[in-house]
Amino acid sequence: MTLTSFGPANLIKRSPETHPLTWRLRDDAEPVWLDEYQAKNGYAAARKAFADMAQDDIVQTVKDAGLKGRGGAGFPTGVKWGLMPKDESINIRYLLCNADEMEPNTWKDRMLMEQLPHLLIEGMLISARALKTYRGYIFLRGEYTTAAKHLNRAVAEAKAAGLLGKNILGSGFDFELFVHTGAGRYICGEETALINSLEGRRANPRSKPPFPAAVGVWGKPTCVNNVETLCNVPAIIADGVDWYKSLAREGSEDMGTKLMGFSGKVKNPGLWELPFGVTARELFEDYAGGMRDGYTLKAWQPGGAGTGFLLPEHLDAQMYAGGIGKVGTRMGTGLAMAVDNTVNMVSLLRNMEQFFARESCGFCTPCRDGLPWSVKLLMALENGEGRQGDIETLLGLVGFLGPGKTFCAHAPGAVEPLGSAIKYFRSEFEAGIAPTSAAVPPLARPIVVGA
After folding, report:
1. 245-295, pLDDT tens digit by residue?
2. Which residue windows are coiled coil (predicted)?
3. In this structure, what DSSP letter does residue 274 have?
4. Would residue 437 count as lying in a domain?
5. Is 181 helix (H, G, I), strand (E, B) or coil?
6. What 3-state DSSP class applies to 260?
7. Structural domain of 373
């Protein structure tokens, strides 16, 4: 699969009117540098924002457009911007781009940064103007070396053209932008862990309140947005609220378009910009082409490893937060994974929980001890050495590590696929219980952490 696999040609006809994120992409997948980007109307939205719009009007426009975060949580962007202090005397503020794309099965931000680096820079420039931030950082996953190279070149191009730095577009507004590569921790996707890492601290989430809008990087007001979120801003400013809202399908409560994808043993794995409200069946059958010959669809996840499993009968759900919520899980990043009929769910979950256990920051007890415990139990079930009561213990852990039970959302996301897998495929877990095993009370099996 390539990052420019945008589906069958007869289905994908990208234009500025329908594909605000991807219409500038080149067919050869090479980066769109400054001259070409400006020839394709690049930075026109930034010029409009600087020349014709008050800073508060930019915030209100994004709020009215209904733009929501594209990193997985889906918090309204304009509302988040509105939390930044109004006090003009606070002259040190920061804008952070969360580009630590470490969610398994997710690669959408990588494509934007590698092929359209100036779209992200323009989005950050407009956002910085709106939020009165004088400095920005793109916190980039360390493994994204190509993205780092392309972003650094694009930042240099923009600065040389007077689009970054001092007195941007003659407005008197200053904005410096830096690319910061992280050391590689999944937990840095949580905004306050990202802030700690940027400051050179251990990547642990912070207690909230205070929220970053009040006390963020180096104690100053800070706004953190995802790559895809920021890349939506130029089109909203350039073409307006009504147009942006019109992009979504009828019935969707989320506005605009979304980068969606399908991986696994499908015929055409890839990434596509589609309107919110498209059905998962369209995504799976029309764009991904269905399963490869010889395979059938057993289950699927709608948006990364931290979302629950769904069944083939759930494919008619609309791809937006509320649509996926109706069938029992979260949309997450919108990049789905197909699980084929050859996959054992116990082995798949053991692999997933092993990843999540290793990526825990270890700050709170439920996550630090509970996730390794789930791995121990799953390994036993995978090897046919499970004991009576193990499945109930796993379900108990799903409850103990659920929303509101841990310091951040890492553990709830980690156990969501586990709970759904047991719900739909319990017989596969039961098959791992040794026939002569003695019953063990739920949550009574000992564990040696790190063993």
Report:
1. 999 999 999 999 999 999 999 999 999 999 999 999 999 999 999 999 999
2. none
3. E
4. no
5. strand
6. strand
7. 345-430
